[in-house]
Amino acid sequence: MAVAVVALAAAGCGKSSTDSGGGSSSESGKYSGKGIGLAYDVGGKGDQSFNDAAFSGLEKAQKDFSLGGRDIEPQDGESNADKVQRLEQLAKAGYNPVIGVGFVYAPAVKEVAAKYPKTTFGIIDDDTVKAGNVVDLVFHEEQASYLAGVAAAKATKKNHIGFVGGVDIPLIHKFEAGFDQGARSVNPKIKIESQYLTQTAQEGGFSSPDKGKDAANGQIEKGADVIYHAAGLSGQGVIQSAAAHKVWAIGVDSDQYQQSALAGYKDWILGSALKNVGGAVYDLTKSVVDGKPLTGEVRGDLKSGGVGFADSNPKYQAMKDVVAAVDKAKQDITDGKVTVATK
User: With a threshold of 0.85, does the pTM exceed it?
Assistant: First the structure.
């Protein structure tokens, strides 16, 4: 599929976008849109984590349904008006669905969806926008993080682990809460370092690998030998630090062991707490193509495969006791024997 890089003429709509060719109708003939419109969160495409997970869903949907598509990068320090303009541009051009990647798009989705009632809008990681043509794509991140905590507590040799959150907000608190609970289910006395990189996303908590690296360096100096990050692009720095010190890192959202940009560090990526953002993008697109667009809240959990724990690293697979503990924890959660905290 040919991909052309197109500069956006309108100010405030993002640094760049890709416009991919493809048909504009499905085999069923019910779909007549231009394709998928995707607007990225802070850090943009190439974060090897959250945004790239969304892009993977766009790519798969384009291929499977012969669709066109456009994905647009955010700007540094942009306003909500910039996000509104970006979503309006996609909707006006005929893209359907139009998806905002990240809770920061909530006000913009609410405003633009009201102006384009025949377009289906999706927002990832927010459940506050309620409209007939809006789908809230949310997840039980705390469940995947619980598995990460179990893995960390079983793999540590020092009974000392760490958590690095990108921004100090309720969404990321869910990751920390699940991680802590999972780790303490293995060892109630385990020592857990915790650090948030910034108070707001505008300060770069999700987009600054140097901040992630500094935080991980500090936790490793204190004695942590497994560090879990929920920090988007900043997490690359956490993984780089862990590899440099030959301690374990646990990735987030995407299977970071499989990410090409992290190939030099992958031997030290124990696993990743997965959030199937790509699957959410794909399923929403399929519903629109099929002429039966989703609406309301769609929340992914362990039972549905919406979250999980990646086990791609052969070194992880060789740790039979760690794998067994994670598998048991997953079963306990899906069976309802364990309820994971969100705070």
Answer: yes
